[in-house]
């Protein structure tokens, strides 16, 4: 699959998921978004860019942090995401926030436009994440900051359940497999940021507990985000059996109260532009 085709595929997944994205009464994107904004150190009056803004898990706490004297721009390539999030912003009366169609891979803004660039659970999905990070570095002012969140370890029950679903994919389709990527651990994250012209300020780990009433609730959540990419390839006549297998895999996450509890670890990386030469020093 070409990088362009991969991008189109991901956009299509999130376009279809837009109406239910982060709207299934599951704590996941919101706490990760709040943690990302907190780590970014946004100040009142800052100009902030949120790439891949989705339904506002990062955008809304960023707007609160900048206050009415700042400005937050959210971009997303899924048109329905943009429309629905813009409506949410308008209803909330957040006049310092703008939501527009835009590519997280190649944001089209002038260099040095932002004090902070935020990327919540998005860079690892991009076809060329290192290229995207270089683009973000160019958008930052000399004293600016980039803050990104990326997945760490998934709950073992979640991994077992998704493996159970994947076992029902048609034989000709490849099974999801772990890959070594640019955000796998602190060492690779540091190397990736360095290659993009950024210096690490901090890397921290955050854990989020997500609770589900039962396997059907978990499946609704899976359909509402990137998990849809797996589910949409399951044959309709195998969906019930796949769900039953996932339910058995999730039994290890059953709590005394009877619901399901899954814990996800995520990393938040804050980086700053590397200053080069007298002109850069003078700019600071």
Would you kindly provide a written description of the structure presented here, covering whatever features stand out?
By secondary structure, this protein is α/β, with parallel strands linked by helices. It has a domain at about 5-155 and about 180-210 and about 265-275: Rossmann fold. It is about 40% helix and about 25% strand. The protein has helices at about 5-15, 30-40, 60-65, 80-90, 130-140, 155-165, 185-195, 215-225, 230, 240-250, 275-284, and strands spanning about 45-50, 70-75, 95-100, 115-120, 140-150, 200-210, 260-275. It has a seven-stranded mixed β-sheet with strand order 3-2-1-4-5-7-6, with helices on both faces. Helix 5 (about 130-140) links the parallel strand 4 (about 115-120) and strand 5 (about 140-150). The chain is globular, with a radius of gyration of 19 Å. The model is unreliable at about 275-284 (pLDDT under 50).
